[in-house]
């Protein structure tokens, strides 16, 4: 049964997520960027919907997440929120809108919350953005952290390879996770790090840890919905499990439509007025 068919839909909150970690229930999280997809994902029963800056890649065709603007993120987030009845909606604050200035970080977070109706924001980084996180939290805006491979810093890394394999970077990641917890983040995403390290982080902090390419010993998992559904097929990292092949299905449907139009088979008499 669809969640939307239930007469008793209970909204997911930060408290719900903390309870899930406490009882060992895994948290499910997917991205969505538009009304139709968000309705499908929410109706299926997902716990968290991330309006990710990955919209820059999958929706706009950019090579990185950096070009997407605040206005564009709010547009996507507003579209998603309109469709959601149960899931907790988190929105990425885009690159350049929080890193260097805590006052700007606060303004960015407030804009997202007021204009989109989302439930929380997500930021990338640890100790270097602690002031911005603290400032956002001071306004009562829930913050999700993001450590490991942080796509907004891709030009600093120079590669999308696994992060924190060396002891020094691993120690910093653990320290940063503790900083995010102490600052008041309600959860942390860990991207593309060794599974052993991710497990250690999840056991070290009391808040939920969501993994993407971080093994199975964390509190939940997140994937980009277009990747998981096989709509974008060029991106096939080890951590991605493709649950459908919608690109092939959709291509065949379009080809069948073209064939029927060319053959004057569509529309037929029953499809005409």
From TrEMBL:
Protein source organism: Belliella buryatensis
Catalytic activity, EC: 2.1.2.11
Positions of the catalytic residues: 191 (proton acceptor)
Family: Belongs to the PanB family.
Protein name (record): 3-methyl-2-oxobutanoate hydroxymethyltransferase
Pathway(s) annotated for this protein in UniProt: Cofactor biosynthesis; (R)-pantothenate biosynthesis; (R)-pantoate from 3-methyl-2-oxobutanoate: step 1/2
Cofactor (UniProt): Mg(2+)
Keyword GTP-binding in annotation: no
Molecular-function GO terms, alphabetical: 3-methyl-2-oxobutanoate hydroxymethyltransferase activity; magnesium ion binding; methyltransferase activity
């Amino acid at each position: 049964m669809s969640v939307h068919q239930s007469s008793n839909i209970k909204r997911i909150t930060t408290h719900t997520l903390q309870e899930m970690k406490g009882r060992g229930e895994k948290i499910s999280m997917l991205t969505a960027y538009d009304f139709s997809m968000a309705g499908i994902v929410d109706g299926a029963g997902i716990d968290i919907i991330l309006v990710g800056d990955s919209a820059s890649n999958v929706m706009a065709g950019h090579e990185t997440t950096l070009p997407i603007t605040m206005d564009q993120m709010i547009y996507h987030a507003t579209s998603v929120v309109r469709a959601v009845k149960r899931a907790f909606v988190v929105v990425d604050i885009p690159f350049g809108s929080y890193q260097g200035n805590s006052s700007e970080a606060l303004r960015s977070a407030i804009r997202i919350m007021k204009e989109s109706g989302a439930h929380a924001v997500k930021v990338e980084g640890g100790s270097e953005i602690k002031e911005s996180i603290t400032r956002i939290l001071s306004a009562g805006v829930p913050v999700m952290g993001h450590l490991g491979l942080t796509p907004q810093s891709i030009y600093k890394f120079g590669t999308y390879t696994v992060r924190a394999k060396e002891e020094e970077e691993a120690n910093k990641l653990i320290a940063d996770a503790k900083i995010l917890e102490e600052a008041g983040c309600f959860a942390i995403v860990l991207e593309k790090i060794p599974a052993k390290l991710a497990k250690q982080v999840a056991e070290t902090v009391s808040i939920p840890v969501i993994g993407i390419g971080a093994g199975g010993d964390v509190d939940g998992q997140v994937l980009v919905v277009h990747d998981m559904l096989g709509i974008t097929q060029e991106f096939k990292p080890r951590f991605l499990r493709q649950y459908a092949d919608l690109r092939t299905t959709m291509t065949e449907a379009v080809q069948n439509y073209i064939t029927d139009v060319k053959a004057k088979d569509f529309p037929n008499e029953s499809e005409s007025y």
